Amino acid sequence: MDEQQSKGPSFAGWLGSMWLYTILRFGLFLVLWGVIVLAGLHGFAGAFVAVLLSIPLSYVLLSVPRARFAANLEQRVNAHRDNRADLDQKLAGEDDID
Q: Which residues contact 17 (CB under 8 A, 6 or more apart)?
């Protein structure tokens, strides 16, 4: 398990957290749109109001999945930077030998 963590986060874990957050955002929008349509506001106006309401609600209600996605993304970026620094160091070491 430590070997897996030392290599950095998996692509599947990062992609899964991204899709989960995206699906939850769309789900929240669709639920709000459905409630607004049931309240009597149809068409583009109802969708627009649903978008306006879903933005702040998703910020509050979906903070945990968003934080998980951001943490996974940050881990992937840091792992990429570390791998790049290791590669740069190895390549610089080979130039010193010649």
A: 65, 68, 69, 72
